[in-house]
Write a structure and sequence with these properties.
- The structure holds two protein chains of two kinds.
- In chain A, 0% of the residues lie in helices and 53% in strands.
- Chain A is mainly β.
- In chain A, β4 and β5 form a beta hairpin.
- The N and C termini of chain A lie far apart (37 Å).
- Chain B contains no helices and eleven strands.
- Classes of the chains: A mainly beta, B mainly beta.
- At the A-B interface, β5 and β10 of A face β4, β5, β9 and β10 of B.
């Protein structure tokens, strides 16, 4: 089983739609969790950290479920500019980030 | 407030040559990480360094690859005798261990092409 698993997609959604991604992880000792966004093989850009209490930043909401070992990202009112690959990442037992392979989102008119 | 800087952005080498990739962390950051992204694959951790110290090199190939972060100057990822399979995007990230969450910020990457 991979350490971090994501549905690769692509998710094709119309502008204005709500879309959710999940990411499962296998190491229960994982400590910190993040969502990154990557455009066209450019550098990953931090979208948000993920906390057990859940956190929201504008149209984006992230949630961590330690019992079921997954994190989620919800995007409301999708914009064309949200089209990208969304990477979940985590740390466990050190500072190195372990990434999922990413979920591709395409927002269409 | 400059972010993480990497150079060169693109590097072309022939098989057997050496590649040197440089990374300057964000101002105030003393932790540097190198990741590799092979075509159509996810990012893989290679090495974590602090000034003059390698902290974790568990992701580094056993041969031909080395990394350093000297007291002065950028971090260097060095690949000796490159092979076609080394062609990839190499990203550097930096962090400042502030609080409980060590957030890493990435540079623009160096795209290495081995002919």
């Amino acid at each position: 089983r991979k350490e971090v698993e994501q549905d690769p997609g692509p998710f094709n959604v119309p502008e204005g739609a709500t879309v959710a991604f999940n990411c499962t992880y296998s190491n229960s000792a994982s400590q910190s969790f993040f969502w990154y966004r990557q455009d066209c093989r450019k550098e990953p850009k931090l979208l948000m950290s993920v906390y057990s209490s859940g956190n929201e930043d504008g149209r984006f909401t992230a949630q961590l479920n330690r019992a079921s070992q997954y994190i989620s990202l919800l995007i409301r009112d999708s914009k064309l500019s949200d089209s990208a690959t969304y990477l979940c990442a985590l740390t466990g037992g050190g500072n190195k980030l372990t990434f999922g392979t990413g979920t591709q989102l395409k927002v269409e008119l | 407030n400059a972010g993480v800087m990497q150079n060169p952005r693109h590097l072309v080498r022939r098989r057997g040559q050496e590649a040197r990739l440089r990374c300057s962390p964000m101002k105030g950051h003393s932790h540097v990480y190198w990741y590799r992204q092979l075509p159509e694959e996810g990012l893989k951790f290679m090495v974590y360094l602090q000034k003059e110290n390698i902290i974790d090199e568990s992701g580094m190939p056993k041969e031909r690859f080395s990394a350093e972060f000297p007291k002065e100057g950028p971090s260097i990822l060095r690949i000796q005798q490159v092979v076609r399979g080394d062609s990839a995007a190499y990203f550097c990230a930096s962090s400042q261990l502030a609080g409980d969450v060590d957030t890493q910020y990435f540079g623009p990457g160096t795209r290495l092409t081995v002919l």
